[in-house]
Amino acid sequence: MPTASPVQTDAAIETRVFWLRHRNEVIVVLVMALLGALGYVGFRIYGERRDAAAGELLARAKTVSDYEQVIARYSNTAASADAYLLLADTQRREGKFAEANGTLQSFLSKHSQSELAPTARLAMAGNVDAMGKTDEALAIYQQIASAYPKSYAAPLALISRAQLLKTKNRSDEARQVCETIMTQYRESFWSREAMQLLMSIKPTAAATPPVNTGQQAPVLLARPPEHRPFPKPAPPATTPH
Asked: pTM score, two decimals?
């Protein structure tokens, strides 16, 4: 009659002894793992429902207070990020450029890695320009082009910069920016825009050289002194006798 191998018997005994000694710890670990899985699933469900509710509230938002409510109630959601941009646009259309830039700065502070970050910076540059701060707007456009060279925002920022430079009669700088766009973004729509803008920029005025007609200018010679005859000597005076 076959008998169980001693190795198998020892392993079974050791497993049973281990279970008897550590069953409480094992049960706790299993319960914690189960609770963790349930918590993750619950968090996902809660997150999805929260995102859906935020999206519905954003879809109904039309005023400044509506957008502020979305931001306050559903922070760190995609709808909240969109609400920042829509709020800033509403403020811009109302002529509140400084407030709009404050909203955009708050968006960048909380969503710095968002794909909409370049859009927010472009909007800030436009608001600054609308406030008459052209030099500051030029600086922001240059920062955008440097920070996001592979983004759609880079050539758009450069063409905006070139237009501002043209407005300020800084023709040489505007031409350089247009040439940069045509070189670095030659396959984009903005390359054609840069070419058209370049053609509209007047060259810098320079001193006009004299026109060569092929005829030698007449040489003015010194007039010789007029020849005058020497005066005749006066006759000697006669003494009366």
From this structure: 0.64
